[in-house]
Amino acid sequence: MELRHRGGGSSVLCFGSKVETSSWDIFFRNANAGAAPGTAYQSPPPLTTSLSTLSQAQSLVQAQPNVDKLVEDHLAVQSLIRAYQIRGHHVAQLDPLGILDADLDSSLPADIITSTDKLGFYGLDESDLDKVFHLPTTTFIGGNESALPLREIIRRLEMAYCQHIGVEFMFINDLEQCQWIRQKFETPGIMQFTNEEKRTLLARLVRSTRFEEFLHRKWSSEKRFGLEGCEVLIPALKTIIDKSSEKGVDYVIMGMPHRGRLNVLANVIRKELEQIFCQFDSKLEAADEGSGDVKYHLGMYHRRINRVTDRNITLSLVANPSHLEAADPVVQGKTKAEQFYCGDTEGKKVMSILLHGDAAFAGQGIVYETFHLSDLPSYTTHGTVHVVVNNQIGFTTDPRMARSSPYPTDVARVVNAPIFHVNADDPEAVVYVCNVAAEWRSTFHKDVVVDLVCYRRNGHNEMDEPMFTQPLMYKQIRKQKPVLQKYAELLISQGVVNQPEYEEEIAKYDKICEEAHARSKDEKILHIKHWLDSPWPGFFTLDGQPRSMTCPSTGLNEEDLTHIGQVASSVPVEDFTIHGGLSRILKTRGEMVKNRTVDWALAEYMAFGSLLKEGIHIRLSGQDVERGTFSHRHHVLHDQNVDKRICIPMNHLWPNQAPYTVCNSSLSEYGVLGFELGFAMASPNALVLWEAQFGDFHNTAQCIIDQFICPGQAKWVRQNGIVLLLPHGMEGMGPEHSSARPERFLQMCNDDPDVFPKLDDFDVRQLYECNWIVVNCSTPANFFHVLRRQILLPFRKPLIIFTPKSLLRHPEARSSFDDMLPGTHFLRVIPDSGPAAQNPEQVKRVLFCTGKVYYDLTRERKARQMEADVAITRVEQLSPFPFDLLQREAQKYPAAELVWCQEEHKNQGYYDYVKPRLRTTINRAKPVWYAGREPAAAPATGNKKTHLTELQRLLDTAFNLDAFKDLA
Known about the structure:
Its main location: mitochondrion. GO terms for molecular function: metal ion binding; oxoglutarate dehydrogenase (succinyl-transferring) activity; thiamine pyrophosphate binding. Its cofactor is thiamine diphosphate; Mg(2+). This protein is of the alpha/beta class. Helices cover 37% and strands 14% of the residues. Strands 5-12-13-11-10-6-9-8 form an eight-stranded mixed beta sheet, sandwiched between helices. Strands 21-18-22-23-25-24-30 form a seven-stranded mixed beta sheet, with helices on both faces. The longest helix is centred in the first third of the chain and has 24 residues, at 195-218. It is elongated, with a radius of gyration of 35 Å.
């Protein structure tokens, strides 16, 4: 029978063979007697040995009563080694304060030898401490030795796993990775530093510490969320960047909360100190557009020389709101984009570093969502280094009340990321761990976590009193010697530096701060653009001049429309078998192309295909977007006979086209939308779209919408052209699959309902001044145009599109090629073109509406034979509001009542947004009536009959010309 140890070769054991048993007996006896490595083993007699020889071997075994004990002892030692590898971190001295347990458990593991009486757990006793035991291949504590006394084995295990570093890795199911980690921490004497490295570490600690002290001296009553208690973070980050730069990385994208952000900006990214100091001036005026944000939320982009590696490196710190961890997926998306655009398919040039607080890391679900993107093909960034600033407190909440897991970092175990806990008051241990983390990422291209177990010297901010809630902890903190002082004293005692050299280093940095402070007083204007994390050089100018505030026609020549349509209705790969149902869909597409018409899916195809020809990369992401939730898109074809063989016809349109990326996401909205937002930040020359499975589901991504998309330009002067596709419409499908909550997006629009804009180039200038664009198209052609306009505009704004469900296959929701040819463009308003428009003076009512309810209204108008009495005007672009076009419409029908008609409930949808703007448009000359569903708490009924009853009621109201007389 052959037994194979993972990675350890094989050995043949003949169970029941006393010949083989005797050879192992001899081996263990020789090893126990101290035989030199390689000499303990003696070959067994050959299988043809005579019976007399076997008899002698049997008598030899019987003469050795301790054989079983020897075997058991060796197995016990192997179990002991494994126990330290698995649970040694529970015993490590991680808390700098010495009062808490980093794992929230004060008990000691029974299988860790903390005293000699615990040897009994393994069936050993003190007499075994000096016995020599052979070491297994799964440990490196022996160095060049293959056997050690038990006493030395335990000592070396304690040095490797129970000092100031706690290593969690034994849950990783890859032997090579486990062996790599063991070697990094178990090899004797591996954590050595040269005197020069120690001096560099001291200098970085000086900068980190004195920066905070300088801010405290100058602005003692200002919030800054300083780094006191974890000053080692600065050398930690610089170590990760240095090692990564050495391994070939030239672009690092970072995300972090507010604690320590100013220090990171100053001493890691090397932002000019005067730019930071001037932010504390309350008299500072804003020079640029937008409201800006507080200084400890802002980001930065900087390219400089890394002095350690003498290589250029670009550092970007993404702006982050107070919504902790919200920037995590944004950073990952931006990193993925930068890797994509520079062809870095393995993450060797571009990487991300994410900083976290301990309470947020454990408490915020977005951390888990982001981790689960880490190894998905269309979302992986090939490894992120996570650094947790573990204050052992969350605002005022004790960690025992903030999480159920032993460590705040346990969520990282779901992706088999190694976790290195380290006492932040041991700078050399921190630097060593950070070097290992950077090497891990470079070697395996997987996530890794560094848990800096530290403390927070002040309260939640500098104005907060922590003694209210954590008196014992803060009594100890008040007595705690700062890490800089402790490390300086250590190096002075070692003779690495002397006191004058140390004081000179402090004086040198203090002088730098003072001089920068003096220069900062000359800054009277806040240039927020100095704080951009994603500049787009060259985009806002053309031939050195600002780009013209115009938008060309978004139409396309017929030849291109036909070509795209033909590819969209075919399979451009030989010997590829598609589903029979899909064959019918493609055939229908082909017939539409012949008839010069498009439906919704084909219009989208043509918009995408035309942009790809123009060199615009397109990325469409979301749950089930490859096929489309409503089985309408089918951008990825699957061979019915060959597993995992796919075809993306969109990538076969043109010889030198831009790439098209369409990718089904994990079942996440918050994380994936944040990722796509970050991807869109990297370049303005890409169309990045996120589609909700149903529009209702964007509410679990509300933080990204509220904090980044809606106010992004106002807060950080950062334009972004991301597109949100949100299926919306009352179809009788219940409250979870009906409403994309248009009222929420419209409420956050920044246009004034009471002011009629006086603008040149009204349509484009209005777009430039809004915070985002909100549309609800009723025709495929308009959908085509708005997608193309998103790229052809001379600036970038987020675009919110309420997309249809039933209109995807509605026979009337078709557009002609004529509506998409050169010279055509997006229609903000589609006026009535029927009999009512021919005799506008006779029209009694104008129904303003948006989206699919238009088709319900036209059907009902025709059924009531009221085409000449009622005009129906479609508002395709809701924000910015088309004041100019609707004014023209209202003036066209002088005798008509004005009614806003919607299928949504009165307290939802568009009415509260549209009504005051319509009244401003007509100068309040008439009332604006409402026809639609009554107010309700839920977005829609779940009962089909009730749905139809409600729909008929709103149609009755819309076309009953006497309905509003009593109200009037």
